[in-house]
Design goal:
The complex is a heterodimer of chains A (163) and B (252). Chain A has 163 residues and is α/β, with parallel strands linked by helices. Chain A has four helices and seven strands; from the N terminus they run ααββαβαββββ. Chain A has two domains: 78 residues, Fe-S cluster assembly (FSCA) (GMP Synthetase, Chain A, domain 3, 2-Layer Sandwich), CATH 3.30.300; 68 residues, no CATH class. Classes of the chains: A alpha/beta (163), B mainly alpha (252).
Chain lengths: 163, 252
């Protein structure tokens, strides 16, 4: 007999490969947005957590989860948005960081960032690896990124902000 | 007043601060001095709207009257909003926008680090996210204050005026009433008394580095925690609530 834990794991596996809507090279599992799936009171509860509180991708991720599960015949699904534990870039696996870099986004350079204020960050250019880079703006194309430029190869690039 | 009722009011106030400042900043979308700054200010606005959504959802739940975050955001009259007066002040010139950010983000940076210890689990969770986000807001405001204060004669003059003009709205940030007192005892709210000196130091250090002068002690405005606002909130609401007032229950 299949246990509810196995069913929940099955659901988890089905949705773990959903790409992040804004950074399609990494999945919601890689990013740590997908926390877990539990079966309770006749429904699957999918727990997701936002990277930033106002992350506009959350609605889209919820729709995609429901759509994938519906195509696989799983009906009773509830997507729950949770804020605890708070999402952090510490959850990005080294594999996910490599994928980001290959995509042209500099991954967060240090793992913990409780003392962010006043700590200048050395950011390596994802294109040419030069450390001679310069901050253009602390706020980039999405809430989770900052805008940099490389003084060696002259390319501008995004930094996935430490959070 | 029960702890639950006090927590509702406390959460609503925090939600209103985020909602109204978020709306003010969003007015700058496509109007900032250059594109990177446009992105920065609207990103900060987005963080605020996200926080407002989280706070007002929690408030609606605590109230237990079957309302949603949207009901609270769009369907209250002006006297039932409790945002600090500084959040509703007009964007003015770029110096005013930056000084408003300077005063507020320094306060929020200290406040949300403390609120992380709240015994209300949801408030603590929201605070944990907000304190990270607001570090970037503070850094942004600090950078600009130094750059403009220590910039040209014109930028310095404008920054100094903005520092003086907005100063009278800062006293309110540290006001506490029965709601705060009830919740401080319950370990839910932040005791603002201890934050004031830290806040003053943060502001003083930045203002000095920017070669600007600290405003003198002056008369401080008050009232928002009782729903008494400056003339500006009504104008904000006429825009913010327009759609829900004209087409009740309209959804995307």
């Amino acid at each position: 007999m299949v246990t509810t834990e196995q069913l929940a794991l099955n659901v988890y596996n089905l949705i773990s490969e959903i790409p992040d809507p804004e950074i399609p090279v990494i999945t919601i599992k890689d990013l740590g947005i997908l926390r877990d799936v539990v079966y309770s009171n006749g429904e699957f509860v999918v727990n997701i957590t936002p990277t930033y509180m106002a992350c506009p991708a959350m609605g889209m991720i919820e729709d995609q989860i429901k759509e994938i599960l519906a195509t696989n015949g799983i009906q009773h699904v509830r997507v729950n948005l949770t804020y605890t534990p708070a999402w952090t870039t510490d959850w990005l696996s080294s594999e996910a960081k490599q994928k980001l870099k290959k995509y042209g986004i500099a991954p967060p350079s240090h793992s913990s960032c409780t003392k962010l204020v006043n700590s200048p960050e050395t950011v390596a250019c994802p294109q040419c690896n030069s450390k001679d880079t310069e901050l253009i703006s602390r706020f980039g194309s999405t809430a989770c990124k900052a805008l940099y430029k490389c003084n060696s190869c002259k390319e501008s690039f995004d930094l996935f902000k430490c959070h | 007043m029960t702890t639950k009722e006090a927590t509702f009011t406390y959460t609503l106030r925090l939600g209103d601060d985020a909602l109204i400042l978020g709306h003010r900043l969003s007015e700058l979308c496509s109007k900032a001095p250059f594109i990177e700054e446009d992105l920065a200010l609207t990103n900060i606005a987005l963080d605020m709207i996200g926080r407002a959504q989280a706070m007002l959802s929690h408030a609606a739940e605590l109230e237990g009257k079957g309302k949603t975050a949207d009901d609270l955001a769009y369907r209250r009259p002006e006297i039932n909003y409790y945002n600090h007066l500084i959040t509703e002040q007009p964007n003015g010139d770029f110096a005013h926008t930056i000084v408003r950010q300077l005063y507020l983000s320094a306060f929020e940076f200290l406040f949300y680090c403390e609120l992380e210890k709240s015994k209300d689990e949801t408030l603590a969770a929201i605070a944990k996210k907000a304190s990270k986000e607001v570090q970037y807001h503070w850094q942004h405001a600090m950078d600009w204050t130094i750059r403009l204060g220590d910039g040209t004669g014109e930028s310095k003059r404008r920054m100094q005026i903005a520092l003086y003009e907005l100063w009278m709205y800062t006293g309110e940030l540290f006001e506490m009433d029965a709601v705060d007192e009830t919740l401080i005892k319950a370990g839910i709210a932040v005791d603002l008394t201890s934050l004031k000196t830290q806040w003053l130091n943060l502001i003083k250090n930045t203002v000095t580095e920017a070669t600007l002068l600290m405003p003198d002690d002056t008369y401080m405005q008050s009232g928002s925690r009782k729903g008494i606002h400056s003339e500006h909130l009504g104008h904000i609401l006429s825009e913010l609530q327009y759609l829900q007032r004209a087409y009740p229950d309209a959804i995307w």
